[in-house]
Amino acid sequence: MKVCIVGASGKLGRYMVRHALDRGYEVVGVCRERSVGKLAEFANRITVVPGPTNDREVIRRAVDGCDGVLTVLVPWGVQQYSSGTAQAVLDHTAPDARLVFSCGWHISRDGKDRYSWKLRTAVRIATPLAKLFRAVEIDDQVEACRRIFASGRRWTVVRGSDLEEGESQGLPVWSRHVGDPVLASNLTRRIDFALFMVEALTDDTLVQEAPAIVGRCSASARAHAGSGEPAGA
Ligand SMILES: NC(=O)c1ccc[n+]([C@@H]2O[C@H](COP(=O)([O-])OP(=O)(O)OC[C@H]3O[C@@H](n4cnc5c(N)ncnc54)[C@H](OP(=O)(O)O)[C@@H]3O)[C@@H](O)[C@H]2O)c1
């Protein structure tokens, strides 16, 4: 299996590189030129294509011949970074390639997620403020996911809870809607978020799903194991 990891130099990206190499996959990583050094630990084991992830030519070269593409959707800056990246991946990958994207719980596929007032307030305040200070463009990540959902491709959009560092606890559990009791703990180890992304490449039950994930050892996952719908893993 040959996979491309778009956003390979970030924290999530480097965990995904490790999981993919552990599985014996051939890995191509895309990251900004200034961040290539962050991938030094993988020198000679992966191919790095430096450049902005929303550069269509960079993506075209990087995904050539890939069976799967893992894309870290980040809302940084105000130049449609997320939607530009997603569109380039959608346009340049082989039609049957497995496409797995990351985002947060704030993305909703069908509008049936039930958010806490804390998350609703945070997104409502953060979205215009972040844009004002030209730091983060949350509504562009929403637009990126809208295009992915409408694409008809073999996509999975993995929606991460709050994240923490630490040793792996195994594959997170998931549910279709934020607000489902199994997700209440709202915490996942970043290494396991990456594990879920890489596992999704070979899990056809996740095609055209937007699983919201939570750590499998979190209190809510343990309390509701097997009772949620569809509570994967
Ligand atoms: N952080 C959270 O609590 C959280 C919660 C839920 C979901 N998520 C999702 O998880 C994914 C990654 O999150 P993370 O926190 O683990 O971050 P991360 O992996 O450290 O990723 C940050 C990424 O953003 C890139 N980046 C940083 N500044 C940038 C800029 N100005 N322009 C373009 N790219 C820039 C980084 O590239 P360089 O290496 O080049 O800097 C890196 O690829 C995202 O899809 C996010 O929506 C995060």
From TrEMBL:
InterPro entries: NAD(P)-bd_dom (IPR016040), NAD(P)-bd_dom_sf (IPR036291), Polyketide_Oxido-like (IPR051606). Signal peptide: none annotated. One of its GO terms (molecular function) is riboflavin reductase (NADPH) activity. Residues 7-203 form the NAD(P)-binding domain. This is NAD-dependent epimerase/dehydratase family protein. It comes from Kribbella turkmenica.
